[in-house]
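Run log, item B.
One chain of 73 residues. Sequence copied directly from the ordering sheet:
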Amino acid sequence: MGDAGRTISVYREVKLDKGEPGYAVALNDLSVTYVFPSFDKLPAPDKVIEMIRKTAPISSNARGSKALNINLK
């Protein structure tokens, strides 16, 4: 997403319980990674960008921090 070091990652989830793994979405900002709800199938790039613009992240983690913030909304 531009040349300022912001990226979006979409990757296959690792499921520890029953069910099919989905595709996780993370926005990597300059100092924080934001995790968004997963998709059940590989999403098109425009769907990922739309979700990031309209949906609150479900968790975030600052680089170098051991703390994980979870959004329960």
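Observations after the first pass:
- The CA atoms of residues 12 and 23 lie 5 Å apart.
- The first strand starts at residue 7 and ends at 12.
Flagged for discussion on Thursday.
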